[in-house]
Amino acid sequence: MDLDESPARRRRGAELEAALLDAAWAELDENGYSALTMEGVAARAGTSRPVIARRWPTRSELALAAVRHHFDAEKIELPDHGNLRDDLIDYLRQANARRSQLVGPLMLRFSGIVSDSEGGIAGLREQLIGGRPTMLDAILERASARGELDRRALPPIVSQLPFTLLRHELLMRMAPADDDTIVAIVDDVFLPLVARYPSAR
Fold first, then answer.
1. How does pLDDT run across 33-46, given as a tens digit for each residue?
2. In angstroms, rounded to a whole number, what is the distance separating the alpha carbons of residues 143 and 92?
């Protein structure tokens, strides 16, 4: 139990943590990373600074946790259309709709998070994903199991190309990519490359 919370607002565990991260996200969204303070988040969440500091000792850790919390709330459903092309297009359409709302703020309003993250934007991505397999990895593994490609032979840079190209579009446009671009990423760029790594089956 957090003794720094008033009895009327006393929250515990996941409920308290979600409230703190929602408050941190709102502070980031309104004021940017440079103006983020533990005190501001505490006031918005109706709690005290020590409650936050016990969980996230630094504001960069708090900010990253808030971004990850918001990131995870924007769920993308794993497509299952029975073929690589349709799965990829479905995945990129979902990512385009949901992640486009994060890319702009991350680069413009939260730029300090990127500079505070070891490894820059790549380091930030690693911290957000946490070493977990991505949905793109899952799509490619299933395609490999169906015999559409040889996943083991696919170079990592090729494996990640669909999302890399979509992310580039989002960063350059600061807006969702158009659907023709999504289809072109799959049909005109990725699938022709994947054809060089056919399954041995």
1. 888 899 999 999 99
2. 16
Tokens 């840079």 found at: 157
Q: CB within 8 A of 135, min separation 6: which ones? A: 76, 78, 91
DSSP string, 73-111: HS--PPP-SSSHHHHHHHHHHHHHHHHHHHHHHHHHTSH
Written as one letter, the residue type at 81 is H
CA torsion 51→53→54→56, rounded to 10°?
Answer: 120
Which of these, 2, 149, 130, lies nearest to 68 by C-alpha position? 130
Q: Identify the residue whose tokens are 């939260």.
A: 110
Cα angle at 72 between 68 and 73, to 5 degrees?
Answer: 120
Note the pLDDT of residue 7.
Answer: 42
What's the pTM? 0.68
Q: Find the angle CA(95)-CA(199)-CA(77) to the nearest 5 degrees.
A: 20
